[in-house]
Amino acid sequence: MDDSSYYIPAAAMAVAFAVKAPALLRSWRDPLLRAVCALLALAGLVFFFAAPPTIAEVNRITGIPNISAPLVYALLSAFSAACLVLIINWRGGPPEVTRRASRRWIAGYGLVAVALITLFVLGDAPVERLRDLDTYYATTPFIREMIVLYLASLTVAGVAMNVMCWRWALQVHGWLRVGLLIIALGFLLNIPYAATKFTAVVARWNGGNLDDLSTYVAPVLASAGAQISAVGFCVPLACQRIGDTWSTWSTYRRLGPLWRELKSASGYEERAVRIAWWSPAELQVTQRESDIHDGILGLHPYFDSEVRSHAYDAAVAAGSDPVGAQAEADAAMVTAAVRARAADPEGRVISSATTAAPYAATEAPRDLVRISMALRRSAVVTAAREQATTRSESDSHERTR
Question: Is the full-model pTM beyond 0.85?
Answer without folding.
Answer: no
